[in-house]
Inverse folding.
């Protein structure tokens, strides 16, 4: 009996390591544990990567990842083709409508510790590179939020001046952080009241 109890309570039984899974240690005030707390999560590295999404928009915005609202600011995104989609209204079309950065940076993670990983860096940034498209005509259904949608008739977003900001608060912090990451302010040509925006991107599974 004594030997069996000793085996059940051995330190090695509780060691946190696995060659098949990544252990994430989430700290700081962004987790339910609160400031000073920590949350641990096992993740299959072949299931995707947690992209940290930074988004700034003017006016009123609805943001989607593959047709649904992301469950958090760092959703787990699979290795496949995906779509960022936004519906924007109430904006000043003379200025930039949005800035976005979706980042996975193992070296630059501030509040997340990893046991190991197979991907080092992913950076998806708003830029006038022809991959950010918009329409001023309301789509017929939700297919525009998905991969495979024909957006050949949609227009390309262009570089627009950034709005001025008061230097305080969460909006300012997000605004500044996006500029640090290299995101550009994108807008549309001419006036508009409501605009639908698409950005298609792919995550490639790392080689074994």
């Amino acid at each position: 009996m004594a030997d069996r109890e000793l085996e059940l309570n051995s330190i090695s039984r509780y060691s946190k390591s696995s060659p098949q899974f990544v252990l994430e240690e989430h700290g700081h005030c962004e987790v339910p544990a609160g400031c000073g707390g920590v949350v641990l999560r096992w993740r299959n590295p072949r299931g995707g990567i947690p992209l940290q999404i930074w988004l700034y928009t003017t006016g009123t915005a609805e943001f989607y990842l593959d047709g649904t609202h992301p469950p958090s600011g760092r959703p787990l995104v699979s290795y496949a083709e995906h779509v960022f989609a936004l519906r924007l209204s109430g904006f000043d079309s003379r200025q930039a409508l949005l800035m976005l950065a979706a980042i996975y940076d193992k070296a630059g993670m501030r509040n997340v510790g990893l046991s190991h990983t197979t991907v080092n860096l992913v950076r998806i940034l708003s830029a006038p590179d022809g991959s950010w498209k918009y329409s001023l005509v309301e789509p017929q259904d939700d297919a525009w939020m998905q991969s495979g949608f024909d957006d050949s008739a949609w227009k390309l977003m262009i570089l627009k001046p950034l709005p001025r900001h008061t230097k305080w608060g969460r909006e300012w912090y997000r605004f500044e952080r996006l500029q640090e990451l290299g995101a550009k302010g994108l807008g549309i040509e001419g006036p508009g009241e409501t605009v639908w925006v698409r950005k298609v991107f792919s995550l490639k599974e790392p080689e074994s």
Remarks:
- DSSP finds two helices and 15 strands in the chain.
- Residues 4 and 10 are 10 Å apart (CA to CA).
- The first helix runs from residue 2 to 8.
- Residues 49-106+126-201 form one domain.
